[in-house]
Design a protein that fits this description.
Elements lengths: L1 H130 L1 H14 L5 H22 L4 H9 L2 H11 L8 H9 L3 H31 L2
Helix pairs in contact: 1-3, 1-7, 3-4, 4-7, 5-7
């Protein structure tokens, strides 16, 4: 009986031990479970915070990208504006250079035109004096008709003074023409020879031989004078014409 009780007691004790071990195991599991649940919550919270920070960083990156895109657009627009300004500056520089060249050319033309006009103005007195030849010729013809050339020396002096005046004006206009006037002055004696020849013309009733002899005595020196005068007039008019042409050429 005792043996059975002892066996029962052992069995109960064993059962209690097993139960205790089981309870302890459960308790330990529960405690371990409770202790293990704390890091998971913390990680969850950290993960949530990290997710929020990541979302915030993502938004910040998106904002930065948007700002970068906007800055890129502004940069491109600014670069295009700078390029446009450079093209405008280059164009203005080119226009300015062309305007300066045009202005320089215009000034050069004006200076040349002014020089030509000034020279032509100096030709006017020469022209006026040359025009006075008609008066001299009319006086010459009148005096010849009236046979009033008693003082040929005085007439020669007056004729020399007339051409000396022309020479002075010519020297102001174009000194290169003065030798042509000198040739006229040096041949003035031909005019005196001509007047003397006219004064020796046979009167009415002269014979043919007398007229023929008179004609044969025609002074060639007068032709030299006339040719020199015509040569000077031609050179003078050519000079004036060339000045007029040059004035036309410098006109814009």
């Amino acid at each position: 009986m005792r043996k059975e009780v002892r066996e029962v007691s052992v069995k109960v004790t064993a059962a209690l031990v097993v139960f205790a071990v089981f309870v302890g195991a459960i308790a330990g599991y529960v405690v371990g479970l409770n202790e293990g649940s704390r890091p998971v919550s913390a990680l969850t919270e950290e993960n949530r915070q990290l997710a929020e920070e990541l979302a915030s960083l993502t938004r910040s990156v998106a904002d930065l990208r948007s700002e970068n895109d906007e800055l890129s657009k502004r940069y491109d627009a600014l670069r295009e504006s700078i390029s446009e300004l450079e093209r405008s500056v280059n164009s203005l520089t080119q226009e300015n250079s062309e305007l300066r060249n045009s202005l320089s050319d215009l000034r050069s033309r004006v200076e040349k035109a002014r020089a030509v006009i000034q020279k032509l103005e100096k030709a006017v007195p020469v022209y006026n004096q040359i025009s006075g030849r008609d008066t001299i010729v009319s006086i010459l013809l009148r005096d010849l008709q009236l046979r009033q050339f008693e003082n040929l020396t005085l007439f020669r002096q007056q004729l020399v003074q007339y051409w000396e005046g022309i020479k002075s004006s010519v020297a102001e206009y174009d000194p290169a023409l003065t030798p042509s006037v000198d040739r006229v002055i040096n041949s003035i004696d031909g005019v005196i020879d001509y007047i003397e020849w006219l004064l020796q013309a046979p009167g009415e009733g002269a014979s043919a031989d007398e007229v023929l002899n008179w004609i044969q005595r025609y002074p060639q020196s007068f032709d030299a004078y006339t040719n020199n005068v015509l040569r000077f007039l031609d050179e003078f008019m050519v000079s004036v014409s060339s000045q007029i042409v040059s004035l036309r050429d410098v006109s814009p």
